[in-house]
Amino acid sequence: MARAPILQLTDISLTFGGNPVFDDLNMTIQPGDRVALVGRNGSGKSTLMKVMAGLVEPDRGEVITPAGISVGYMEQDPDLSGFATLGDFASASLPAGETYRVEMAAEGLKFDAARPVETASGGERRRAALARLLAEAPDLMLLDEPTNHLDIEAIGWLEEQLSQTRAAFVLISHDRAFLRALTRATLWIDRGEVRRQDKGFDAFEEWRETTWAAEDEARHKLDRKIKAEARWAVEGISARRKRNMGRVRALQDLRAERAAQIRRQGTAAMALDAGPQSGKRVIEAQGIAKSFGDRTILKPIDLRVLRGDRVAFVGPNGVGKTTLIKMLTGEIAPDAGSVSHGTNLDIAVFDQARSAINPDLSLWDAMTTDPGMAVSGRSDQVMVRGTPRHVVGYLKDFLFDDAQMRAPVGSLSGGEKARLLLARIMARPSNLLVLDEPTNDLDVETLDLLQDILGDYDGTVLLVSHDRDFIDRVATSTVAMDGDGRATIYPGGWSDYRAQRAPDAAPIAARAAQPRPAETPAPEPARAQKSGLSFTEKHRLEALPALIERLEAEIARLSEFLSDAAVYAEAPAKAQKATEALAERQAALDAAEEEWLLLAEKAG
Per DSSP, which regions of 220-335 are E strands? Predict the structure, then answer.
């Protein structure tokens, strides 16, 4: 028997600035749906999500949510005005006594709930908004780029939470690995049309290419029919005194149909010029170390970067990845050791904060007032890899339109700011490219193009990213930083690092949560080395202690909540819900401990 949808959009039409975003849109979300919402930057993904959340009113149509169904929305730029701390905001909608939910989410997402709102960064505000949504546990969660500003640890934690939830969710993300792991259906926005496929993101690219191929074939057939009918219309004049006016009108209709077809947005015409070749040895670091006060950022490490290397730096936020790169490029000095550079280095930097661009400047001025790009005496041209280009033509290569040229940079979306910064970087010849979180806000197609460009780039790349799939596609070596000052170098990308790390080294995404020896005992590292365990079993054996500790922490919080006898009298429904959650987590703990014992015995 078919289940009733928990959200239904019927005949939705919406227009912004004279251009239709959606027209006659119909779609439903079913209970338990796990949906990837995909599309190019600017296609309307966030707008559609706001329509689903009831935050944007369509021009026409209905958004229907059945009585008793709750919908929660995590937006990219949450408004925290009126709240003193991040925790106050995250727990504002929770009943008294259930703030433990926010504490659990804050621990997993790694933000300080006591931090004052006015001193919180944009990333901390987003994490607080995500914690609020997870704590509210609505029937339908609408998640707009939840992995932005999360490190690999927090992404892994969020991935686990969403994989275990019974709620339905719709997810916008650029993180392929995250989408592949979680989604079972895909909504694809393309030129105002929303298509659905009941397969996860892993099947999206094949579906997209098949759809476009069929579209191209239909367009080709229509063009041939128009050509044939047009020839008949001309030749028929000499053959007949009176033409078939029905066929003439049909030809007019065919031409109108062809004119109404919307051309697909192309990919940005990005290109990199490596410029003069650097020396074979690009960077030689010997025994470099760094501390800030009593905190050790980096213990002594030797690192050699050769021409053509693509080195990824991975680890939790705050461990010092950007600091290490700045030492390698000479921006800051190490406390100990030395860094030497090879010859002919020309460095270009894509910074995480996008601080290289003044938000008050227009796009036009951001390009033409840059001393490294301005063409002498001309305010409408930029120097692109040694050749003058009109600023409008060059920015159109990066998918900006005429109307945006005089708009302030601050009005751009995150993806558009990233494309603008790429446009500035790619205009200059360089042979050492530093990319600090370049994948944030870029759509899948632009990420594909950037990956291909880096593959063909003759220079050297230093990359900081939490996008596991992008690291796998780009990196030739990975520097893993674990937070205690250690940095270990592995050949290959993220998956290679995971496979090669020492058996006694917990994965980055779990190490911070592992119990100390005095607490829940972890299996002896040597056991995972011995024969008897597959690679998957070894990984599971290493991950189980972190899972066990998390379950124990949740059980402790729930037990503390239920220890207050007043809860049963004043809020029996909450008490019942907490009791069920406690039983569920206790069962999960028993199963995890049993699985650990079996795997440890097999390893031994």
Answer: 281-292, 295-306, 310-314
The candidate with the shortest Cα–Cα distance to 470, out of 499, 498, 491, 449, is: 449
- Asked whether the predicted pLDDT for residue 89 surpasses 90, the reply is yes
d(CA 193, CA 364): 32
The single-letter code of the amino acid at 463 is L
* Positive or negative torsion for Cα 383, 387, 390, 394: negative
The set of residues, in sequence order, having a beta carbon less than 8 Å from that of 493 and lying 6+ positions away, is 312, 471, 472, 473, 474, 475, 476, 478
pTM for the model: 0.68
Query: Beta strand pairing status for 381-384 and 347-350?
Result: unpaired
H/E stretch holding 157 reads helix 152-164
Dihedral of alpha carbons 395, 400, 402, 407, sign: negative
Q: What digits encode the pLDDT tens for the residues 373-421?
A: 656 556 788 888 778 888 888 888 887 888 888 888 887 777 778 888 8
pLDDT at 170: 97
Cα-based torsion angle of the residue sequence 229, 233, 239, 242 in order, rounded to the nearest 10 degrees: 120
Q: Alpha carbon of 387 to those of 383, 399, 423: distances in Å?
A: 5, 20, 14
Q: Determine the Cα–Cα distance for residues 391 and 376; give it in Å rounded to an integer.
A: 14
What is the C-alpha radius of gyration for the chain, rounded to an integer number of angstroms? Answer: 28
**Given this model, what pLDDT does residue 478 score?**
94
Contacts for 47-50: CB closer than 8 Å, 24+ residues apart: 47/14, 47/16, 47/21, 48/22, 48/189, 48/194, 49/73, 49/142, 49/144, 49/170, 49/172, 50/75
